[in-house]
Amino acid sequence: MRDLLRLLKLWRPAWPWLLGAVLVSLLTTLANLTLMATAGWFVTAMAVAGATGSAINYFTPSSIIRFTAIVRTGGRWLDRVLGHEATFRLLSATRTALFSRLEAIAPAGLDDLRSSEVGARLKLDVDRLELVFLRLIAPLVVALIVGVLVVLVIAWRGDGTLAAAIAAIIVIGALLLPLLLARTSRAAAEREAALASQIQSRTIEHLDGLAALLITGDDRRRSDQLAQLLAERMKAERQVVNRSALAQAMLGIASDAAVMVVLGLGAAAVASARLAGPDLTLLLLLVLSCFEAFAPIPAAAFGFGATASALRRLFALWDRQPLVEDPAHPVALPPGHDLIADHVSFTYPGRSQPALADVNLALPAGSARRLDGASGAGKSTLISLLVRARDLDRGEIRLGGVPIKQLRLADLRSRIALVPQRPHVFAATIADNLRAFAPQASDEQLWQALAKAGLQNAVNNMPDQLATYVGHGGAQLSGGEARRLAIARGLLRDDARILVLDEPTEGLDDASAAAMLSTIASSRGDRSLLLVSHRGGLSPASADDNQKPLVLGDADLAAHHRNQRADQQP
Ligand SMILES: Nc1ncnc2c1ncn2[C@@H]1O[C@H](COP(=O)(O)OP(=O)(O)OP(=O)(O)O)[C@@H](O)[C@H]1O
């Protein structure tokens, strides 16, 4: 319930649409009730008038019938249009808000989640929220108002006993029983929703890793696991559907029971002249058509379990705290871009020992420096701290003399172009991949960047050059080409005065690595360069001769490995 209220608060901008949709739906349902009841009354009254030879005013009822028929037809159309418009607005507002929230939390705040899982939540769980308004709130509000009005009309035109009997049938058959039945299958509905999300994320992972799975022969086992999940989902779904069908049947029985009660008590009232004959037909059709308003209740009650668990999962994602945030009072970006790491220490959450302990780095504006150290020494960690992917525990990092914690994240990151060890290549064209970092760049500028990164010839030989699609994660590029594409992206960012490249030569043979490093050295212009690389012998081409590489020290490393072993102890 708390999650539902949070969701309604999130939907505040769309409240007028929601209110409009509920009002139209209510008016349409009331028009239908009035039409049915008046038509029933009119036909019977005409028959009575014909039989007794008395006069009857047929203008008023026939006008009401015509008016309500028009309102009902137009209302049904408007109801659909408004209901769906409101829902689309809600879904897109929810998705956009969630996406912005994820942007603030990412990248480090989502480290422990599979991206396919986040994707499934963004898609499936948000889609399920469609049920909240269109199939839960709107029908429930309309049914409750209609139920109360119908009971009041019965008490007014018929009698109190009949009104009380119909009220009891509506409450028990149309509300309590569906809700109780839905409650008994709530666990199954939640399991079904969780399994649907799991199946979607596993399927994406399966497709992503299909090549590896086919080679290792593990695809059969994974497919069997997926089939098992599907079977579990079908079992849970069957349980929900069976109970939901039972609730629908109960509603049908309640509607029939209400008709019998109206006929039984009403006929007695007509016999004792407490009720006019035409009024009995009016009440009969009123009660019969009022149950139409309750028809969506079982589906709403049964959808609620899955919706509640989707909401829980979404808000669990939403409530993750960003690991870094913009300062409350940011300082303007300084003109200089000396980058200094001063006695920096950092320990990953859950680890007992630091990944970095008291590390210093100085990268004066325009200089180039190599950062070395054995695997696991903390090189990638250090450069992630430079762009505040995380915040350090001790020490300080300054850009142009200003502590980076005092700068807006966007400002800081606009100054530093970081090419990570495993750069992400979008499933798009070469040009799209480059323009993701420089949306305004002309084709000529893209070619220049490709040339600087040593990729011009390779792209020239591709079937559609800049328009060549590179596949999922850059699957149609070699590892070296993907890395060069990422370097070209970094070089395209004019505002970035500092280039940080994490192992750009990894996996390349010595000649290619040397060629790449000399291209980078000559194309960086007056930008500073921080190069994470083991290739000491190749560094003079790119790094300043008078600057020794910063080696994350052996002593630190030995301590680090000792600590890692300690972490792994039970
Ligand atoms: N997200 C993380 N959570 C917990 N520990 C981490 C995380 N990322 C890295 N580590 C740990 O921090 C240490 C430093 O890792 P880092 O990736 O910075 O090393 P590196 O010097 O870049 O290694 P390599 O040369 O192999 O890329 C490693 O022992 C690693 O296990």
UniProtKB/TrEMBL annotation:
One of its GO terms (molecular function) is ABC-type oligopeptide transporter activity. Coiled coil: none annotated. Its main location: membrane. Keywords: ATP-binding, Membrane, Nucleotide-binding, Sugar transport, Transmembrane, Transmembrane helix, Transport. It is found in: Cell membrane. The keyword Secreted does not apply. This is ATP-binding cassette subfamily C protein CydC. GO terms for cellular component: plasma membrane. Belongs to the ABC transporter superfamily. CDD domains: ABCC_MRP_Like. It is a multi-pass membrane protein. It comes from Rhodopseudomonas faecalis. The chain crosses the membrane at residues 14-33, 39-59, 132-156, 162-182, 245-270, 282-311. It comes from the Bacteria. Residues 536-570 are annotated as: Disordered. Residues 19-294 form the ABC transmembrane type-1 domain. Residues 339-570 form the ABC transporter domain. InterPro entries: ABC1_TM_dom, ABC1_TM_sf, ABC_CydC/D, ABC_transporter-like_ATP-bd, ABC_transporter-like_CS, P-loop_NTPase, Type_1_exporter. One of its GO terms (biological process) is glutathione transmembrane transport.
